[in-house]
Design goal:
Low-confidence stretches: none
Largest sheet: 6 strands, parallel
Helix content: 25-40%
CATH class of the largest domain: Alpha Beta
Radius of gyration: 19 Å
Shape: elongated
Structural class: alpha/beta
Mean pLDDT: 91
CATH topology of the largest domain: Alpha/beta knot
Number of strands: 10
Distance between the termini: 42 Å
């Protein structure tokens, strides 16, 4: 984690919240009894920002300064509104392509996915505010700068985003090994949102129930799953192949 993206100390963090700085997550000293830190936690919970309660040693590693029990990690990018980007994309693109990440947790996977998404013409990436990998300096590095070239939306709940996409006439397809339907037998030539799941659990069961279709990649080896960034690349390039026919 780059220390350049860190804000530390009670008043600097409060000021960052007040000025609506893009905060990705905050580390709070475990068992803190400081009333001002309690105020910070309350404000962050209202904003749905991820809060991690950690030992003081963790905070000491995050900054060399006087952190006073709180370190905020800011985002190197500004996020866009889901409603705005969907409306803009639908008005300018006949066959939009959105990528929804259901709590991808590994920063390197996240960065690699962003890089592939930019290369394959994805119009926007949608992530959940809590539970996923942070948009950090490591994400920027792994994405090879692609993160600055593709809109990213943060939503409170992935399920609400799927409802909104469907209501906007966008077909939702979940990548999952729990189906016999191959991506190669699935039509991808319409307005589309592809949903990729987390490294350990895949697309959550509650999300699978909502999507319009499910699709899988054929696996011919003994290992029954792919790295999520590799799988995402295969799915996205099948979209490219079909749309370029």
């Amino acid at each position: 984690m780059s220390k350049k993206n860190n804000i530390f100390g009670i008043y600097p963090v409060l000021e960052a919240i007040k000025s609506e700085t893009e905060i990705d997550k905050v580390y709070i000293q475990k068992d803190s009894e400081n009333d001002k830190i309690a105020t910070i936690v309350e404000k962050l919970e209202q904003l749905n920002v991820t809060i991690n309660h950690v030992p003081v040693e963790k905070l000491n590693r995050l900054t060399n300064g006087n952190h006073q029990g709180v370190v905020a990690v800011t985002s190197p990018i500004s996020f866009v509104s889901l409603e705005d980007i969907v409306e803009k994309t639908l008005s300018s693109t006949k066959t939009p392509l959105f990528l929804v990440l259901d709590q991808i947790s590994d920063v390197r996977n996240f960065g690699a996915i962003i890089r592939t998404a930019e290369c394959t013409g994805v119009d926007a990436i949608i992530i959940q505010k809590k539970g996923g990998a942070p948009v950090s300096g490591d994400t920027v590095k792994t994405s090879a700068g692609a993160i600055f070239k593709i809109p990213i939306c943060k939503v409170d709940h992935i399920k609400d985003a799927i409802f909104y996409l469907q209501g906007s006439g966008i077909k939702t397809i979940a990548a999952t090994e729990k189906t016999n339907s191959s991506i190669y037998d699935t039509s991808l030539n319409e307005p589309l949102a592809l949903i990729m799941g987390s490294e350990g659990k895949g697309v959550s069961a509650s999300v699978l129930k909502l999507v319009d279709a499910q699709a899988s990649l054929p696996l011919h080896g003994e290992i029954n799953s792919l790295n999520v960034s590799v799988a995402c690349g295969a799915f996205l390039y099948e979209v490219v192949r079909q749309r370029n026919l």
